[in-house]
Amino acid sequence: MTFHSRNKPVSLEHHWMPFTANKDFKASPRMISSASGLYYRTHDGEPILDMTAGLWCSTLGHGRPEIAAAIAEQFNQYDFAPSFNFGHTISFELTDRLQAITPEGIDRFLFTGSGSESVDTALKIAYAYHHARGEGGRKRLIGRMRAYHGVGFGGLSVSGLTPNRTAYGAWLPSDHLRDTHDLARNAFTRGLPEHGAELADELETLLKFHDPSTVAAVIVEPIAGAGGVLLPPKGYLKRLREICDAYGILLIFDEVITGFGRTGSAFAAQEFAVTPDMMTMAKGLTAATVPMGAVGCTAAIYDAVVEASPGGVELFHGYTYSAHPLGCAAALACLDIYEAEGLYTRAAGPIGKALEEALHSMADLPGVVDIRNYGLVGAVEFKPRDKPGAIGTALMKQCWAEGLMVRQIGDAIAVSPPLVVEDKHIGEFQEKFRRAAETALG
Ligand SMILES: Cc1ncc(COP(=O)(O)O)c(C=O)c1O
Fold it and tell me: Considering the domain 3-59+344-440, what is its CATH architecture?
């Protein structure tokens, strides 16, 4: 089949697609040609319900005219301005706005171009912080099994997904907590699991093993997303906070997925009432309309690095696209929409419950071993058949054939719809997913 872009035929061979089975995809492409609201359209015009908000990022659905207008207006005013040694006011407007919605205490922000860059930036700030305080020996980082922190070498070192690391190694000194997925005790939990807070105590064991004075930071996703929607057991994050405090170690929440309303609060830190020292953001910051990320940190971290500096550049770090004006304009338009439409807390209301009901109604499908959910994110996990991931892949493809975009993670299917999802979309998801599962599972 020949595909066209802007009326010209295109070949498929030159594009090396990311995190994709290239040969398989090119043999049978799933090609998108337009998007509006909660629907994509395929190249032949078939609607596809977007139950994943793209890659957990199109939090406002697709094609919001307010965002387009804000980007266009900014483009006409100034399309780009450097933020090394020069400033432009829109990024300062955005940091004022971020300060107002992030947890109390998180009030200094740096901008990046993506979640991966945000993670690597946060890790570097942790190093810079300890170095500035005369504790430059703190270089070890603690991550968690099944974590995803993007694809930079820093993020890889703390990530816990083997295939992402296999060819590349993990170059920063690191160690990993166990993941919090406990099917034996927590299967089919709605909301936070009851069991497993004690898994956080393992942090103390790791710290003692490595010598806590060599550890810079602990980084976790409050809800592990790309590792399979793994929820923190009740009390787990609070315990991590206490242990970090006891040993002078920074706690970083990677809120690239959980930020901007996914859990029912603006940030998971607020939802779970645990404030980290740093938090990473991206995705929902601009609802994916312009690539952009950010790192928020405490004034204590900023002061240790910046105020205590003898002068000159204090942090040798930044990106050409840090605080890109078009990203800032998009982010401000998104924040306006989140606030005007009450979207930070919408996931905690009836729509979150509707998604929960829809997901848990799948319990009778053959081979389901777990269903879990929180706010507007959830997953249905199947028992592997033949080889790991085979069921997940078959289901993802069959969902596409039914007009439904879902995210495959091994043999789990994750959903994270745009925050503006409505009951009718959830009903459509339920119908299409069941049909797809019945076909794919035979
Ligand atoms: C928790 C988390 N951190 C970091 C990233 C990396 O973000 P990006 O793909 O924008 O680099 C992701 C992406 O899914 C993520 O889920």
Answer: Alpha-Beta Complex (3.90)
